[in-house]
Amino acid sequence: MRIAMLADSYYPSRDGVVTSISTIRSSLESLGHEVWVVAPDPGKDLRTDDDHVLWIRAVSFKTYKGYYVPVLPSADCSRMRSLDFDVLHVHGVATMTVRGLLLAHYLKIPVVMTFHTMVEDVAERYTPVKIPEDILRRLIWFYLRKVFKRMDAVITPTDAVGKELAGHSLDVRLLRTIPTGIDTSVFRPGLDRRRFAEKYKLGEGRKVLYVGRLSFEKELDMAIRAVRNVDGASLVIAGKGPQKEELEALVSDLGMEDRVRFLGFVPDEDLPYAYAAADAAISCSGFETQGLSILEAMASGVPCACRNARAFTSVIRDGENGFLFDDEKGCSDAIKKALAAGKDVIEASLATARDCSAESSAEKTLKLYGEVIEAKKRRREEKKCSA
Prior knowledge:
Oligomer: single chain
Distance between the termini: 31 Å
Low-confidence stretches: none
Number of domains: 2
Strand content: 15-25%
Mean pLDDT: 90
CATH topology of the largest domain: Rossmann fold
CATH superfamily of the largest domain: Glycogen Phosphorylase B
Strand order of the largest sheet: 3-2-1-6-7-8-9
Number of helices: 15
């Protein structure tokens, strides 16, 4: 099968969406399928060396450093037609979604969308045009309903997000939950704990790890404050983002410089060892549609403390395979429980991670592709018969 994945964000940008695309692409290619990525062009000096990426002219996203916005028009139909794709798979809700719908109409092939980002939660912060929040939310959902209606299928990474979308009275041909897969051969228990700690000079004591972007929707300030009340524990933050300076100032104001470490971006080859060096992992975000870093931690045998919201309500069973919390005090308590978790919690979290393996995700995605391709053919035949 020949698949085109259209991405609102791709390398050199790094986030959960980019990780998702990279993982599903690798899994599909390992099964013998050919995958191309259609992505915004960051400029000649920043492009990845990849002959299966079609770069689309783009401009820098001024309100979110490190991201690029594809320019419409230029759907590049002739080049896409020459590659003879079987299905288009859109990752995002913005410019590439519009491009995907236009291309699907022109190429007469199905288009599938994975809904990665609950955009209504962040739009007010990042939109270049300031609009009252209630009006902005109504406009967003008006747009999303129109988009979803035209998709052959919409994928959500967790049941919780699927139910949330369904609650907005959507008209969708097919709504399917398929978790974004993680590579359980890379993220696994038993790796050398000392390797990462020594390389990054983490010192002694119990380590609570956060992996991800440093941005306001991740609510890292809660984790910083919560760690104050956990004796002998330090917070290790792996990632970069627009909130870094603000968070560093908070750490300084709280006098926690010796208990919070900002590592910056951690290369892919070091990341499995980051989890190996951790005693617990944390996410305070109520924004996540899945939370890939938490699944990576679970696959690595690291007990997790997560916000009792959205995606984590589908992933974490409180007290069984991890721990949930609602506020700062609850966060401190959940961290303590994670640090004291026994083998039963770790085994249950490993089982959850295995259910979300990259191989399983690829197989489910391929099955969905087959369904939408056949459904598209049936609709075309029915249209011919009724003409």
